[in-house]
Write a structure and sequence with these properties.
Structural class: alpha/beta
Number of strands: 12
Bound molecules: pyridoxal-5'-phosphate
Strand order of the largest sheet: 2-8-7-6-5-3-4
Shape: globular
Helix content: 40-55%
Radius of gyration: 21 Å
Strand content: 5-15%
Length: 395
Amino acid sequence: MIGVINKKLEGDLKKASYVRKMFEQGEELRRLRGADKIFDFSLGNPEAEPPQSVRESIARHAADGAPGLHRYMSNAGYAFARERVAEHLAEQSGVGVGAGNVVMTVGAAGGLNIVLKAILEPGDEVAVFAPYFKEYDFYAENHGGRVVPVQTSAASAFRPDAEALERAITARTKALIINSPNNPTGAVYDEACLRELDGALERCGQKYGTRILAISDEPYAKIAYDGVRVPQALACFRNAVVVSSYSKSLALAGERIGYVAASPNIEGVGELVDGLVFCNRVLGFVNAPALMQRVVADNAGAGVDMAYYAERRDAICAILDEAGFDFVRPQGAFYVFPKVLGGDEEAFKDRAVAHNILIVPGSGFAGPGHFRLSFCVAADAIRRSRDAFLALAAE
Ligand code: PLP
């Protein structure tokens, strides 16, 4: 048979089919054993509903029938939406971000793709701290680049090491992606850490005569526990490009709304923003969803109810503690990344399934020997999963 898809995609589909298989296995188990019997901790799709103010705003804009509500606008997004995002970021970071530094995007995923398309030459490298969100591999490859992982470990609470980063950077490194609060570890990088990383990027840039952007992928920026403050990448990195979205902070993942903000301190930032706007267009996004731009402009400072996630984090950590798992208590996001018991990840995943627990093996995040639990699920399901975790650990 003559293949219809390209060879690279054939390979990618094989890699991606693992996640699909897990999803199908979950559906099958729900059908066979009953949905209420299955404890599905595999997906990062918030169970929370958007805040009331967001729902009201959606209803109001949809009903008001203003002329042009559904038309194209500038590829960068509405000026008022960009202004609101810029005001919010400037207030939080103390850096003079203006509307001209902001592009509204189709989620953080769309944002990452326009940034990488704008900066990568074929063969360029993007440094990333592992474990990491593996979609970065595909996003870099979309634009001719490749991810270079820099390992972190549970022993140091997944804190990035600036010296290890410096060793991994080459003349081909165009960017570092940081993700704090982190998927899958729940780590939040402190300010001193970000400043050390900035120092490493500056030194390497001077060594190779390059400029290495710090892309801060921060869809979880508003989800942090125990009063932990998430430092502002714009304030800590000279060449910061913030990529964020309202998928998690306002539980709007399906509405695909986010933004990119490029620091005014980047030399040539105007050219970079022009490039981002063009890439938004030619990647086929054209512009971020119109209605959602209005909604997030109304709710720029809003966030989910933190008590909601804190309750779930505490409940799952208590169960893991009681069952004797070795894990780093998450400071942010809604994931925890414990070590598997018994060494073999695949066998552990199968044993978990036998106890009706669905998890993702750590290799799916370049973090072998671990598994990821996503606790953005019903609090009641977490409580009911206790016996299953105790039995799994006792095995
Ligand atoms: N970056 C990370 C680390 C994520 O976990 C996700 C989604 O789960 C994304 C980016 C994509 O977010 P969005 O839905 O805003 O495109």
